[in-house]
């Protein structure tokens, strides 16, 4: 024991020496370490199995121990990666290492370390912490610290993307059980720089595991995509994800026990369907904690903005509870996901839909289709992940809205609460002013005004039960209250029961509520068009049965809706007139519909006992039966508004029934759009039937006809037509190309009772005619109507006393055939009356019946052709115009033209016309329109004239020649012929036109008058004559005048001139002999009187006469009209007296140079005081008056001898009786006394027929000279 210290000393000394030698040896050997580099690297390769290379090894010894520097170290890793270090410096503190019995380095620094590994980072399922191995033991325990400078690590991230972790600086400190690190880490990849993070760790190892501590990191604008994992990259496909964040994580027993994340700023973006969605955060915090045995993730305030729309302030908490052992039969409870959320805006989550579609395509489709929006106030879900059918929930929401998805209807303003579980829960909802689109079920969105409902369900091993109670919905035009129950027993058929009361104030909106998927498209189509209005207060819906068997064709269940509609508008067929003011009961029963009403108006008729049934929806047919009563005129217009317009409606348009009718109607209406079948019977009693093609009406029609659509068939019927009894029957046929109507008529009529002929014609007719007729009407389906009418009869029993050629004796056969063929625009009317009279005409059916052209041909064998131009041609036999005018004057033609329009061009030809007391031979009269009126041309043997009847201008009559010489009894030899106007009375100017007459050559009453002109104007009761002219060639008479024909105030005024070269030639032209020869004459007159022009009233006669006769001779005075003029002034008596005394002078002619006279008439008394005859042997002057009313004379005549000039007496005799008488008496009687007597004075008084002539003075010639 005493030697022990020495031994220890010796040993220590030896050890010191050895250490000194070792140190010395190391001092000497280490500088030469690089020469041993190959052997050292080979030793390392054999130990690690990897090829290792280095470009240089440098070592030396320092006071604290050796230092080593290696350059360009490189090796290949087993996964294909590589590891390299540009430079490694190591300084080992030998003394501290010996002191602490573990490696202590003063310096361990890796410069430009590059590590590239192909092994991806994976989440470890081992929660026991980081277990140290040889390498980790080296770095965590053997090294007290180490540094990394400008290093880089390349690896595969969780997303599968290669990333490079740049480490500008990292310092790692190892304590006994504590490990700390601090530095900067920069992550980058092929897509760019992902940001720089500040990292701090403070970890402890217990039992060799790094299982406790805290980790802190901080980064600004860092790209987090590489850390999200491959699943996130594949399913979320973020385009950007950059955040400024800080995070804390606490490890406990090798597991993460809690953590906090603070997202200061940043956001992410991802591709949507059509655009890019963005998410941004603003100081968002989240806390993760481990609540044994589960996890809780909580966001206390959702500071999130998505697509520039901030989320409302709310909270979100997620919890996961693992599977737990519990007591009982099922001793394990499934792990659960619990969700708690508040104040969520669903529209703000739209940007997450692409992510949801990646997670679940079905979820994405639902989200895309429904596009939900609205606000979830609270949401609580407990979802057992292994038994989701036991999910529990509680929620409340406001104004949710979504679009329809499959059989889930869309909704809006949907608010309510939900509580319970999938197995047993309750739902309370309300909606206000909302629309619920439900395509494939309802044809229009349900417009909910106000609705509430409570639903509850129960699901267990016995099945599923859904109850709907307190359902009260007020929608557009409908209000429904009721409830339902749906049962789905396990292993059995479902059952649905519904009981509801329904009211509506507008039945036309019923189409909105027909479920098309249950009722079928055709039925919904029909009812949608049929129900066009109405009200119902107590409609009832009852449903009970298996909904899969709806509509229960074999009565396996009950579906019934009883709707008593009031004031309804119902269209049994879309293209039939709707029924209005209808009270109808609709009874929807299983697969049929039964409708009935007591009465309804069908247009203008009344339908009673009306039923409308759809016995089976599958047969798609509606059957209607009704009794019809009402006015017949309303039946046709009703069918005109139906598909039967072209058949039955067209028939009733041509055969229009009036009066009350009774009928039975049956309609068979298919829903497939095919034609409706209408049939029935119509009873007529005292009705009327208007036959439109004939424009005539049958009255008192009695009988019956039946119809099937447009096919009508009547029984023999009786009627009254044109006030005559008639037998009629008709039938119609629906042909392949046209609809045909046939009417048969027959009767035995008296023409005088028809009521269409003028009374004057009826008075001339007698007897009856048996006839029959056929009417055929074709109504093409694609063209206008055509028709054919034939009437046949024999006028044998008819007598006619009408003027020729319409006169006929009874018993004389006269077959009459009339045929009309036409269409709705025109028709041709042809026929014959007997074998020699044929006619042809073309009529237009305008607003008023119009005759376009017509021709009547007597003495013909065939129907003549129509005229080439519009007009009427009448080729008639000889006619008595007087008789026809007498008939027309009685009013026989007054009604002509009232019912039809006739052409203005009319041509009448006859070989002889007796009119005006004269036969007009080979006469042709043509009346035709002109530019400013119409023109009438008359040509024949006796006339060639044209009359232009101008509008707004006087008529112009141009007569080339006129020969008018009416036959009359010749007057007695000395009798005065009657005036041709003597029979005229009661003349009225009303309706007379203004006329300009121009006659070139006129013969009247056998006398040629030559040229006659006159302008006649009518104004009220006044006829004015201007520019009157009568020019015979020997005398010229001009005439202007006025004839006032007012009742009680008839008066005439005439003014003009009469002149000529020879008075005897002018008088001889008219067959008048005059004693005045070779004297020119010029007479001016201005006369007026009361009465017509041809019947002067002498008492009212007034006016002036101025007479001028030229040189002439007075010869014989006892004959002719001159003698009558002399008798007027009693010159004949004066001449007889003078002849007795002066016979020599009287027997010689009296020559004169001129005769002048001015006379004025006042109230029938003619006065003169300047009558002067300038005779060759004597001058004669006269004065006095003649009372034309009393026919009395009071005249004085003075005769002066030695008249040297020839006195023109002819004009005096022709115009002025006083002058003529005086001149003639003086010149003829006093001629022999000129040498004896100077002056003779006579006084003439007394009546015109027996005047008194007294010589009052005879002055001798000498005295006169004195």
From TrEMBL:
Origin: domain of life: Bacteria
Where in this chain does the record put each YhdP central domain?
A: 1-1253
Pfam families (UniProt xref): YhdP (PF13116)
For this entry, the protein name equals AsmA2 domain-containing protein YhdP
Q: Which organism is it from?
A: Citrobacter freundii
């Amino acid at each position: 024991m005493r030697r022990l210290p020495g031994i220890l000393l010796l040993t220590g000394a030896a050890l010191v020496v050895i250490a000194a030698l070792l140190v010395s040896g190391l001092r000497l050997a280490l500088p030469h370490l690089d020469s041993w580099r190959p052997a050292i690297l080979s030793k390392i390769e054999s130990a690690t199995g990897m090829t290792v290379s280095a470009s240089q090894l440098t070592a030396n010894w320092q006071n604290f121990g050796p230092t080593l520097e290696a350059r360009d170290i490189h090796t290949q890793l087993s996964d294909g990666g590589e590891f390299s270090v540009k430079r490694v410096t190591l300084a080992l503190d030998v003394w501290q290492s010996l002191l602490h019995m573990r490696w202590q380095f003063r310096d361990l620094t890796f410069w430009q370390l590059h590590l590239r590994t192909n092994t991806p980072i994976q989440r470890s399922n081992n929660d026991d912490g980081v277990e140290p191995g040889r390498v980790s033991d080296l770095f965590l325990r053997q090294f007290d610290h180490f540094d990394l400078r400008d290093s880089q690590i390349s690896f595969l991230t969780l997303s599968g993307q290669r990333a490079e972790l740049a480490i500008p600086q990292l310092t790692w400190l190892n304590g006994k059980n504590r490990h700390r690190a601090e530095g900067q880490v920069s992550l980058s990849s092929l897509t760019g720089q992902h940001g720089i993070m500040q990292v701090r760790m403070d970890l402890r190892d217990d039992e060799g595991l790094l299982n406790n501590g805290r980790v802190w990191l901080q980064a600004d604008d860092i790209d987090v995509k590489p850390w999200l994992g491959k699943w996130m990259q594949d399913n979320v496909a973020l385009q950007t994800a950059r955040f400024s964040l800080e995070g804390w994580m606490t490890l406990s027993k090798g597991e993460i026990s809690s953590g906090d994340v603070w997202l200061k700023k940043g956001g992410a973006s991802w591709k949507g369907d059509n655009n890019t969605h963005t998410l941004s955060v603003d100081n968002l915090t989240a806390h993760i904690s481990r609540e044994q045995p589960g996890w809780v993730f909580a966001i206390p305030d959702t500071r999130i903005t998505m697509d520039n729309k901030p989320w409302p302030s709310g909270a979100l908490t997620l919890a996961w509870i693992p599977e737990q052992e519990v007591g009982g039969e099922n001793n394990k409870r499934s792990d659960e996901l619990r969700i708690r959320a508040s104040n969520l805006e669903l529209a703000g989550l739209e940007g997450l839909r692409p992510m949801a579609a990646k997670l679940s395509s079905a979820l994405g489709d639902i989200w895309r289709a429904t596009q939900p929006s609205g606000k979830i106030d609270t949401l609580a879900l407990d979802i057992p992940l292994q038994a989701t059918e036991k999910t529990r929930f509680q929620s409340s929401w406001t104004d949710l809205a979504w679009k329809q998805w499959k059989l889930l209807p869309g909704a809006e303003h949907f608010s309510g609460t939900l509580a319970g579980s999938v197995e047993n829960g309750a739902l309370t909802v309300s909606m206000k002013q909302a629309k619920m689109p439900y395509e494939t079920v309802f044809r229009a969105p349900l417009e909910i005004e106000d609705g509430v409902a409570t639903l509850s369900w129960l699901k267990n091993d016995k099945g599923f039960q859904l109850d709907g109670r307190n359902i009260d919905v007020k929608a557009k035009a409908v209000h429904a209250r009721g409830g339902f129950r749906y049962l789905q027993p396990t292993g059995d058929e479902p059952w649905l029961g519904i009981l509801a009361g329904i009211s509506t104030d507008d039945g036309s909106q019923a189409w909105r509520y027909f479920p098309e998927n249950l009722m079928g498209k055709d039925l919904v189509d029909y009812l949608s068009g049929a129900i066009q209005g109405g009200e119902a207060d107590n409609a009832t819906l009852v449903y009970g049965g298996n909904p899969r068997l709806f509509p229960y064709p074999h009565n396996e269940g009950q579906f019934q809706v009883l709707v008593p509609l009031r004031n309804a508008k119902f269209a049994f067929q879309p293209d039939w007139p709707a029924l209005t003011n209808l009270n109808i009961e609709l009874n929807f029963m299983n697969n049929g519909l039964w409708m009935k009403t007591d009465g309804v108006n069908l247009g203008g008729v009344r339908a009673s006992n009306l039923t409308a049934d759809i016995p089976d929806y599958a047969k798609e047919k509606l059957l209607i039966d009704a009794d019809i009563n009402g006015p017949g005129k309303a039946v046709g217009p009703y069918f005109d508004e139906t598909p039967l317009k072209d058949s039955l409606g067209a028939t009733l348009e041509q055969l229009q029934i009036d009066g009350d009718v009774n009928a039975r109607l049956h309609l068979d209406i298919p829903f497939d759009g095919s034609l409706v079948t209408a049939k029935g019977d119509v009873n007529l009693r005292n009705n009327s039937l208007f036959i439109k093609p004939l424009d005539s009406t049958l009255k008192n029609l009695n009988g019956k006809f039946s119809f099937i659509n447009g096919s009508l068939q009547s029984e023999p019927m009786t009627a009254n037509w044109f006030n005559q009894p008639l037998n009629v029957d008709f039938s119609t046929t629906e042909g392949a190309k046209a609809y045909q109507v046939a009417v048969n008529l027959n009767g035995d009529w008296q023409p005088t009772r028809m009521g269409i002929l003028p009374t004057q014609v009826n008075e001339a007719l007698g007897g009856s005619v048996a006839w029959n007729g056929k009417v055929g009407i074709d109504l093409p389906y694609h063209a206008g109507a055509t028709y054919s009418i034939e009437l046949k009869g024999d006028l044998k029993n008819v007598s006619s006393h009408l003027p020729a050629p319409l006169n006929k004796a009874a018993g004389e056969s006269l077959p009459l055939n009339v045929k009309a063929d036409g269409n709705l625009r025109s028709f041709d009317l042809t026929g014959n009356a007997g074998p020699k009279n044929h006619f042809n005409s073309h009529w237009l059916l305008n607003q008023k019946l119009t005759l376009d052209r017509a021709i009547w041909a007597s003495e013909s064998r065939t129907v003549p052709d129509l005229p080439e131009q519009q007009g009427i041609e009448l080729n008639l036999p000889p006619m008595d115009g007087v008789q026809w005018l007498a008939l027309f004057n009685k009013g026989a033609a007054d009604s002509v033209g009232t019912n039809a329009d006739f052409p203005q061009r009319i041509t009448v030809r006859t070989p002889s016309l007796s009119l005006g007391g004269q036969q007009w031979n080979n006469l042709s009269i043509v009346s035709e329109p002109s530019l400013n009126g119409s023109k009438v041309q008359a040509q024949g043997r006796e006339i060639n004239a044209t009359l232009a009847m101008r509008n707004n201008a006087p008529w112009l009559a141009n007569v080339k020649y006129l020969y008018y010489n009416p036959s009359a009894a010749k007057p007695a030899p000395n009798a005065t012929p009657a005036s041709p106007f003597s029979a005229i009375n009661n003349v009225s100017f009303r309706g007379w036109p203004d006329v300009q007459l121009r006659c070139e050559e006129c013969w009247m009453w056998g006398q040629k008058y030559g040229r006659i002109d006159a302008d006649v104007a009518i104004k009220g009761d006044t006829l004015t004559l201007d520019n009157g002219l009568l020019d015979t060639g020997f005398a010229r008479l001009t005439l202007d005048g006025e004839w006032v024909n007012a009742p009680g105030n008839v008066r005439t005024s005439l003014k003009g001139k009469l002149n000529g070269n020879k008075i005897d030639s002018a008088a001889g032209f008219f067959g008048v002999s005059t004693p005045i020869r070779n004297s020119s004459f010029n007479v001016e007159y201005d006369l007026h009187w009361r009465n017509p022009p041809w019947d002067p009233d002498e008492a009212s006669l007034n006016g002036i006469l101025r007479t001028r006769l030229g040189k002439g001779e007075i010869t014989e005075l006892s004959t002719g009209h001159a003698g009558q003029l002399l008798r007027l002034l009693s010159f004949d008596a004066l001449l007889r007296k003078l002849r007795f005394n002066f016979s020599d002078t009287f027997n010689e002619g009296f020559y004169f140079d001129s005769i002048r006279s001015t006379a004025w008439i006042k109230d029938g008394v003619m006065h003169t005081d300047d009558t002067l005859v300038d005779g060759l042997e004597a001058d004669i002057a006269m004065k006095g008056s003649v009372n034309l009313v009393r026919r009395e004379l009071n005249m004085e005549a003075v005769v002066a001898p030695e008249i040297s000039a020839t006195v023109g007496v002819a004009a005096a005799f022709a115009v002025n009786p006083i002058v003529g008488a005086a001149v003639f008496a003086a010149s003829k009687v006093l001629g022999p006394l000129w040498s004896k007597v100077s002056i003779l004075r006579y006084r003439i008084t007394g009546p015109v027929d027996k005047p008194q002539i007294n010589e009052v003075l005879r002055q001798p010639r000498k005295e006169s000279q004195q």
